[in-house]
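#struct-help
A.M.: can someone run this one for me? Single chain, 162 residues.
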Amino acid sequence: MDVSHTAPIKPLSKRARIEPATLEDLPRLVDLTMALFEIEADFVPDRQKQERGLQSILEQPSRGRIFVVRTDFEIIGMVNVLFTISTAMGGFVILLEDVIIHPDFRRQGYGTELVNYVLSFAKRKDFKRITLLTDKISAESQRFFQKLDFQHSHMIPMRLNL
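D.P.: on it. Structure tokens below:
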């Protein structure tokens, strides 16, 4: 699997485009993940932890990517794409995390375009599966991903925090 080249920048409209994030984007990415974790029951927002995690992804492109929705003025959304190998699938797979569009820009198609961008990236790079976790109490979030053909799994997440 060659992940050395990311997808070309995709214009969403005259107002926004999707492209890989850079280290210069880190402060805004931290702001977005902080906002996401404030509404997630499983997480406690911690600016230092979020910055450390995001920076690790940006500095290690062989482990994952962060794609952003960017206007000429700011980043209005992001998605975190982590790479791993599945023995069940016999190849590389993606763990999709931190899908967030700033509240002022929701319901305008940006989230759908962002996830579709990841799907296109995954197909071009021959990934075998994309897995994501969505908040089980958020019917809106589940409907969003179901409209994009994601399906519930018979697997359930279990965690051990270390």
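A.M.: thanks! The chain has a mean pLDDT of 86.
D.P.: also worth noting: The two ends are 31 Å apart (CA to CA).
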